[in-house]
């Protein structure tokens, strides 16, 4: 699975560009881009390379990256709850995210760090508790938990039956946050 970060180009020097992602800046290579880019263009960046130009409205809509939209939603909730509790600063946020929730933790951490600037959570640490995929087999009637990075279950890992119920691994929730 490819993780591509949507970014705006702020400077170009030959085949290198400085990109901006919600205030975070990084140098990336433009050598994989078939078309010439200009300052102000939006690109998807993967592993230090701009790999695709994207339209400004796609970038601004958040549709170019699922984790960016999630990070912004988490920040909206955290900022609101901090205000409701009379706090001034969010110090940390803890999440539970299931392995089968379709969220890339590293991408979410990156997006959260980029999006939190200029908010009460600007210095907050995001902690993610990974929840493994688990279920109960309808054939052998035993519960199972998938260890490692598995996101999908195609058969009971105990008896190889194809009939089972998944009961964990799809979670996506804010557990708590520390404010001051």
Your description of this structure?
The chain is α+β, with helices and mostly antiparallel strands and 180 residues long. It folds into two domains: 5-61, Roll (SH3 type barrels); 66-180, 2-Layer Sandwich (hypothetical protein PF0899 fold), CATH 3.30.2320. 20% of the residues lie in helices and 38% in strands. It contains three helices and eleven strands. The strands form three sheets. A five-stranded antiparallel β-sheet has the order 3-2-1-4-5. Strands 7-6-11 form a three-stranded mixed β-sheet. Strands 9-8-10 form a three-stranded antiparallel β-sheet, with no helix packed on it. Strand 4 and strand 5 (49-54) form a beta hairpin. Helix 2 crosses helix 3 (105-115). It is flat and about 60 Å long. The two termini are 38 Å apart.
Radius of gyration: 20 Å
How much helix is in the residues? Answer: 10-25%
Named CATH topology of the largest domain: hypothetical protein PF0899 fold
The arrangement of helices and strands along the chain is: EEEEEHHEHEEEEE
Distance between the termini: 38 Å
Number of domains: 2
What top-tier CATH class of the largest domain fits best?
Alpha Beta
Overall 3D form: flat
Strand order of the largest sheet: 3-2-1-4-5
Q: Strand share of the residues?
A: 35-45%
Summarize the structure.
The chain is of the alpha+beta class and 180 residues long.
Secondary structure elements and pairings:
Layout: E1 5-13, E2 16-21, E3 24-29, E4 42-46, E5 49-54, H1 56-61, H2 66-84, E6 90-98, H3 105-115, E7 125-131, E8 134-137, E9 143-145, E10 164-168, E11 172-179
Parallel strand pairs: 6-7
Antiparallel strand pairs: 1-2, 1-4, 2-3, 4-5, 6-11, 8-9, 8-10
Helix pairs in contact: 2-3
